[in-house]
Amino acid sequence: MGNSIWQNMQQKGYSRRDFLQFCATAATVAGFGKSGVAQVVSAFEKKEKPAVVWMHFQECTCCSESFIRASHPIVADALLDVLSLNYTETLMAPSGFQAEKSLSDTLKNNKGKYIVLVEGAVPTKDDGVYCMIGGKTAESILQTVAADAAAIVAWGSCASNGCVQAAKPNPTGATPIYKLVDKPVINVPGCPPIADVMMAVVTHLLVVGQVPALDSQGRPKEFYGRRVHDTCYRRANYDAGLFVESWDDDGARKGYCLYKMGCKGPVTYNACSVVKWNEGTSYPIQSGHNCIGCSEAGFWDNGPFYQHLASFPGFGVESTADTVGTVVGVATLAGVAAHVVATNVRKRKVIAEVHAEDQKES
Amino acid sequence: MTRVVVDPVTRIEGHLRVEAVVENGVITDAFSSGTMIRGLEKILIGRDPRDAWAITERVCGVCTTVHALASVRSVEDSLGISVPPTAELIRNIMLTTQYVQDHVIHFYHLHALDWVDIVNALKADPKKAAEIAQSFSKWDKNTPAYFTGVQDKIKQFAASGLGIFANGYWGHPAYKLPPEVNLIAVAHYLDALEWQKQIVKIHAVFGGKNPHPNYLVGGVPCSINLNEVAAINSERLNLVSQLISQADEFINQVYIPDLLAVASFYKDWSKYGGGLHNYLCYGEFPTKGYNHPEAFKYARGAVLNRDLSTVHPVNPRDSQEIKEYIASSWYTYAEGDNVGIHPWAGETQIKYSGPKPPFETLEGFSKYSFLKTPRWKENPMEVGPLARLLVSYASGHTDVQELVKDTLGKLGVPVDALFSTLGRTAARGLDAALAMIWLKEFFGELMGRVKINEVSTFNGEKWDPKTWPAESEGVGLVEAPRGALAHWIKIKNGAIDNYQLVVPTTWNGSPRDASQQRSSFEAALIGTPVAKIDEPVEIIRTIHSFDPCLACAVHLYDPQGRHLNQVSFE
Question: Comparing B568 with A328, which gets the higher pLDDT?
Fold first, then answer.
């Protein structure tokens, strides 16, 4: 116990050069650029492996699957050496009683120091019976793990904004994490989030030792500060008025802009067109499909995916999520989505109000 | 008599609870319970059918793509759309890729730790491990230095608390592998983690990202143009070709040899976990279109009573064949809780009647799961790789027959050995090997079509909802990696009128039906030995042999759009 990441790497036979390479990549991925490398190196040399628990509630496990796609230089080691990942139902060896022990031991032995990563929304209707683990509700488990957490990260759209189960009519009262806990939550939306973004957020927590700069929706600015549209390589086609008019038409075969096919890139804040997916292999628009806006709160209720946006505000690259806000799209952001605003600490009272309004609307 | 509760069952997708009754060291009864529900079918009502693939794809991120495919097929079936052959090939490439990736992940990252003792690998002689590995595989990484490095890594990891491997059942008497084979498996566990992120780049090429690549009603969203940098061009096809070659090596030089090596030490597990005697497969990998199942790579049909001399035809449109029961599920039906209903006519109203959480046991509750219970002609059916192989074997598919016979010969076990926990795990490996062969074949055919410029990837005749009939219905069948998957859709005035999914883990993991017949998980656990009731690795072993996916298995739906969320505590 108690080894720094650098000590661990030395014992595993990595050279100092390997280590510096690892730090450089970690820093680049984390968005620090070259000037941040020294900072990364010193953090990894000194810090012990932080204890991490990864909770699974109402989710599809796409966040876990995405995380293991990270293009980290030593990705198989990330799980073993960078973090002390003591609880994740997807990969951990023990089940049942022994699994619960792994969780309770971690909370007890790392009070105030462990990091909670949450995948999935929490159903709050009907006393929480729509998600139970070990006979306990997801909500009660969340409160237990959140109580002494050093930081809480909400992975993906489920944990950040409710995602698909919270789409109208939200049958189970699926609720994002920030509305349920009494401390700041780092929201990392996307369905799933990009693997390298996930790894980078974890790295950022390790390096700086504090929550990264967040926008008004609790998203790290380093990855959610630009619209997909503004950094899209097809943007020039948009500006020139060259559009795909029908799937696989001449424009599609020439890689024209997908705006008329319903692309939500103009109203979606994410790093897809910069970081890209699967070690930079592609991103949805590059492979011919419009962006469906999967990292935006309430995106399932923002109108059909193939209906093009009538207009969108904040045209320039300089616009950020803070200035444009969430008032976008062709359809009204009704129900739960309308309440996904600026605050990071909301509680049951709000949830009750949301549900009451949902009932009225339906 | 002891009631053993395992919750959470880990190394699966989703939330599963198993309660097993153990008498004199053997399981005599078992209860499988899905404890999470999201309500996606309710959410689908009233939406654009062309959007349904994206919503249903979010059912599961582990077997990503399969629901998207079932969904676009259901809409195309409903509207009479046939997709261009090039698009069909790309879909086949996507799905075979998913088989290969998903099965490797399952074997190493979800299932292996039931057979492989990580801590015991510390006792291995790396030199001997290299000799053993080289005796059954040509993979050039299997050197003494490599195994020494992995062993050092585990040593270091063990000293720092074991992380995800902490509190495992290490040293349990049910672990039988020699230290060297444990070390080989652990080494390849780590390699597989690295490899899996390569193979899924095929999804990123054609679908933009993985997990959750993009699909399209009427074809696929990507366009092919060898004279354009922003389309599927030579560079993209080269990448896919290389990824396929790498995958071929990993499947045939790592996964299959490891599977056979591990299986050879666990032949006694060909006696346990057989469970049901009935197997269902919808058939998969169309070569002449979705409406020609006779030309599928895997045959469609059912095998009853393990009788491989007869394959029964399966018709998913017949209201008398597939029905869902809720006799033991937390729902209620208008006609009473003991009737079965075909998915096109289904109804569902959640009615949780289990214990109020927190609770210790579900004992004494006649309803005990959010999973419904599907039946084919009233029979409980096993679905998955084993069912696929058996139905195609019985249908006379020679490629399947030869591979099965060859593998049984290598292990020196009779055909009956297939009907077991071990047989199910071995079948998954053969399923991956076949998918690998077909992936290469489909890619070769795609290249052939590119060469003659037959590159259309979309049929737009029925894209515009104005061209649709006022009402239509369809069914989208897919053999997902975990087994028979179907989406039933009804479209009315351009919107989804109702939508129902019956997924592999609903078949396998469901609770008892109205006649108290058990489904696959429960049936397979009976007769399984449990050496230590506080460390029930044997239960996990058999459950994992099905590769459960619980997020897929639980859903709710209501064709009338009634308010569904009343829960009563009885």
Answer: A328
How many beta-carbon pairs under 8 angstroms link A with B? 335
Residue A332's pLDDT is 29
pLDDT at A197 over 60: yes
Chain A residues in contact with B567 by the CB 8 A cut-off are: 125-127, 129
Residue B557 has pLDDT above 50, yes or no: no
* Cross-chain residue pair A61–B13, CB shorter than 8 Å: yes
Chain B residue with the nearest C-alpha to that of A131: B36
Assigned token pair, B380: 């409980």
Q: How far apart are CA B475 and CA B52, in angstroms?
A: 13
Query: Is A272 a domain residue?
Result: yes
Q: Answer whether B54 sits within 8 Å of A283, measured CB to CB.
A: no
Q: What is the mean pLDDT of chain A?
A: 80
Q: Choose between B555 and B409: higher pLDDT.
A: B409
Query: Does A191 reside within a domain?
Result: yes
User: What letter would DSSP give residue B449?
Assistant: H
Amino acid at A134: G
The closest alpha carbon to A33, from A278, A207, A188, belongs to A207
Which two tokens mark B255? Answer: 């996964």
Contact, A212 vs A186, CB < 8 A?
Answer: yes
Show residues of chain A in contact with B9, CB under 8 Å: 95-96
User: Is A286 in CB contact (< 8 Å) with chain B?
Assistant: yes
- Minimum Cα–Cα distance from B87: chain A residue: A248
Lowest mean pLDDT among A60-69, A222-231, A305-314, B429-438: A305-314
Structure tokens at A170: 């939200």
SS (H, E, C) B514-546: CCCCCCHHHHHHCCCECCCCCCCHHHHHHHHCC
Q: Are residues A271 and A310 in the same domain?
A: yes
Q: Do A99 and B8 touch (CB under 8 A)?
A: yes
Residues 314-353 of A with CB under 8 A from B: none
Q: Which DSSP string corresponds to A94-154?
A: --HHHHHHHHHHHHHHTTTT-EEEEESBEE-SGGGTTBEETTEEHHHHHHHHHHT-SEEEE
Residue A118 CB neighbour total at 10 angstroms: 31
Q: A279 touching B, CB under 8 A?
A: yes
- Total domains in chain A come to 2
Give the homologous superfamily in CATH for domain B2-224+231-553.
Cytochrome-c3 Hydrogenase, chain B (1.10.645.10)
The Cα B505–Cα B522 span in angstroms is: 12
User: Cβ distance A153 to A116 under 8 Å?
Assistant: yes
DSSP character at residue B458: B
- Specify which residues B2 forms β-bridges with: B22
For residues B426-455, one letter each, b for 16 or more C-beta atoms within 10 angstroms of the residue's C-beta and e for the rest, the string is bbbbbbbbbbbbbbbbbbebbeebbeeeeb
For residues A340-351, give the mean pLDDT.
36
Given the DSSP bridges, would you call strands B279-281 and B26-34 parallel, antiparallel or unpaired? unpaired
Cα–Cα distance for residue pair B414/B426, rounded to 1 Å? 13
Contacts B13 to A, Cβ<8 Å: 60-61, 90
Contact B358 A140 (CB under 8 A): yes
Closest residue on chain A to B116 (Cα): A93
**Chain B: residue nearest A88 by CA?**
B164
Residues A100 and A231 in one domain: no
Contact A289 B60 (CB under 8 A): no
CB contact under 8 A, B10 and A94: yes
Q: Which residue in chain A is spatially nearest to B196 when comparing CA positions? A: A69
Strands B373-376 and B322-325, by their bridges, are antiparallel
The residue ranges of every structural domain in chain B are 2-224+231-553
Q: What is the mean pLDDT of residues B424-431?
A: 98
Q: How far apart are CA B171 and CA B358, in angstroms?
A: 32
Across the interface, whether the CB atoms of A253 and B218 are under 8 A apart is answered: no
Question: Is residue A216 domain-shared with residue A239, that is, in the same domain?
Answer: no
